[in-house]
Automatic annotation (TrEMBL):
It is a single-pass membrane protein. Keywords: Endoplasmic reticulum, FAD, Flavoprotein, Membrane, Monooxygenase, NADP, Oxidoreductase, Transmembrane, Transmembrane helix. The gene is Fmo1. GO terms for cellular component: endoplasmic reticulum membrane. It is an enzyme of class 1 (oxidoreductase). This is Flavin-containing monooxygenase 1. One of its GO terms (molecular function) is N,N-dimethylaniline monooxygenase activity. The keyword Transmembrane applies. It comes from Drymodes brunneopygia. The lineage of its organism: Eukaryota, Metazoa, Chordata, Craniata, Vertebrata. InterPro entries: FAD/NAD-bd_sf, Flavin_mOase, Flavin_mOase-like, Flavin_mOase_1, FMO-like. It comes from the Eukaryota. Its cofactor is FAD. Broad spectrum monooxygenase that catalyzes the oxygenation of a wide variety of nitrogen- and sulfur-containing compounds including xenobiotics. Catalyzes the S-oxygenation of hypotaurine to produce taurine, an organic osmolyte involved in cell volume regulation as well as a variety of cytoprotective and developmental processes.
Length: 527
């Protein structure tokens, strides 16, 4: 019989994991506790325990070309940034296209995953699941944990003195669905992640007043970036990555500062992030600067204490009256079905080799997929992790020799500081390249320069879309080259709706000229 793999969860990561297992000839069974696939992208009006909760207005932060699974581009008529219903539609098409449905057991909760008594030799796991009140225990050869980290809200009320005496209403952003609750109210949003800013912007259209309290500030990016192109297609390129990783730290920091302050000066808007040691994950929002400028939203420092019907901020003498507080304080990482010893989570850090494999298991037969916050889309990252892991499970995988000694694990922590509230310092592209090189799927720009120069230039200067990782190696896809060369057409198709779409944007042709010169320079200076 084939190798049996248990996949926990049928969201983005679980679907990718199931598909990659099938690609490698493994036998996946995907357990999903709710009645449908889609994970965080499936909107429900009611809030279900243990499931992510979405508000109806959520739109993807990453563009469709940069969010696609590497062998399944989005339909060309889909908008460039996707409302949650369309992203769910894409996931359904993916499941259908690769016949994943028959491997998914809906309405099935994973209760516990424990090492089999002879784990040291077989690497097997005992998996207990529950369906309709009835428990079943099965043995699996390997386990893929794809349960995500948006189910368990983190609400550290003890960090907010006086919240006990506050007479207004307060709730975690997970409870938020519609802005009507804010009508005519004075609203305080605590925390400045993507949800916090989204909710503040929505609230400010109906509320009497909206204040965002942020201790650390944040960089703000707009989906509509330079020349109206999507932010991630401009920023996530091999050229930029090469420049960024080879510049000395202070210079890279100065460049980042300069770049992100071009649209507006963050300091003047009260947003400048504190301290340069950690580059926080930028927040994506198209409205905030103009809402600050028109007085709809005010930015304040961290909360010092709550009073009966008001709040005091650090370094602000006067108190501010408020009626309702939304805590956008993120989520706690937890794996209730695993023993603590398998994945150690301490103050929201998990000790995982390359964010995937627990560092101390005798056999690498359990992996965590999608537990990473890249500055870029999670879809291609989860898929790449699953491609690597399914090959490791099969015994073909290169390189899973996790650092054994405590010392090595420490350096791992510094390199891959797994903090979920601060951006993983890991650069999206470098991480993708690392995993791709483990399985032999990393594209060779120099190799292509001789055989297919146009493709090489597009890969180096254009956006690093995931199709690049299907040009070679296991899981090669015939359509990859075509998908790369037509990516801008799919971006322009849904917006060029008044005039017939001409040739692909002038962006690539300009690139070609500049590109060729720069690439020559790169080759000369030892690329």
């Amino acid at each position: 019989r084939g190798m049996r793999v248990a996949v926990v969860g049928a969201g983005v990561s679980g679907l990718a994991a199931t598909k990659c297992c099938l690609d490698e000839g493994l036998e996946p069974t995907c357990f999903e506790q709710s009645q449908d696939i889609g994970g965080v992208w499936r909107y429900t009006e009611e809030i279900e325990a243990g499931r992510p909760s979405l508000y109806p207005s959520v739109i993807s932060n990453t563009s469709k070309e940069m969010s696609a699974f590497s062998d399944f581009p989005f339909p060309e008529d889909f908008p460039v940034f996707l409302p949650n219903a369309l992203l769910l539609d894409y996931l359904r098409r993916y499941a259908e296209r690769f016949s994943l449905q028959e491997h998914i057991k809906l309405g099935t909760t994973v209760v516990s995953i424990r090492q089999h008594p002879d784990f040291a030799t077989t690497g097997q796991w005992n998996v207990v699941t529950e369906t309709g009140g009835k428990q079943t225990s099965e043995v699996f050869d390997a386990v893929l944990v794809c349960s995500g980290n948006f189910s368990e809200p983190s609400l550290p009320l003890h960090s907010f003195p006086g919240i006990g005496r506050f007479r207004g209403q307060y709730f975690h952003s997970r409870q938020y669905k519609h802005p009507d609750v804010f009508r005519g109210k004075r609203v305080l949003v605590v925390g400045m992640g993507n949800s916090g800013v989204d909710i503040a912007v929505e609230a400010s259209r109906v509320a009497a007043k909206v204040t965002i309290s942020t201790t650390r500030g944040a960089w703000l990016l707009s989906r509509v970036f330079e020349h109206g192109y999507p932010w991630d297609m401009v920023l996530n390129t091999r050229l930029r990555s090469l420049i960024k990783t080879n510049l000395p730290g202070p210079l890279a920091w100065w460049l980042l500062n300069y770049k992100l302050n071009q649209r507006f000066n963050h300091e003047n808007y009260g947003l400048q992030p504190e301290g340069r040691c950690r580059v926080r994950e930028p927040v994506l929002n198209d409205d905030l600067p103009s809402y600050i400028l028109t007085g709809r939203i005010t930015i304040r420092p961290g909360v010092k204490e709550f009073r009966d019907s008001s709040v005091l901020f650090h370094n602000c003498p006067e108190e501010e009256p408020i009626d309702i507080v939304v805590f956008c304080t993120g989520y706690t990482v937890s794996f209730p079905f695993l023993e603590e010893s398998v994945v150690r989570v301490e103050n929201n850090h998990a000790s995982l080799y390359k964010y995937v494999f627990p560092t101390h298991l005798q056999k690498p037969t359990l992996a965590v997929i999608g537990l990473i916050k890249p500055l870029g889309s999670i879809l291609p990252v989860a898929e790449m992790q699953a491609r690597w892991v399914s090959r490791v499970f099969k015994g073909r995988g290169a390189n899973v020799s996790p650092p054994e000694s405590q010392n090595a694990a420490q350096t791992g922590h510094i390199l891959f500081g797994l903090t979920f509230d601060e951006v993983l310092k890991i650069e999206w592209l470098l991480y993708m390249d690392t995993l791709a090189s483990f399985i032999g799927a990393k594209p060779s720009v120099l190799g292509l320069l001789c055989t297919d120069p146009w493709l090489a230039l597009t890969i180096f200067f254009g956006p690093c879309s995931s199709y690049q990782y299907r040009l070679r190696g296991p899981g090669r896809w015939q359509g990859a080259r075509q998908a790369i060369l037509t990516q801008w057409d799919r971006v322009l198709k849904p917006t060029r709706t008044r005039v017939p779409a001409g040739s692909s944007s002038s962006f690539p042709s300009l690139l070609a000229v500049v590109g060729f010169l720069l690439l020559l320079a790169a080759v000369v200076f030892g690329f």
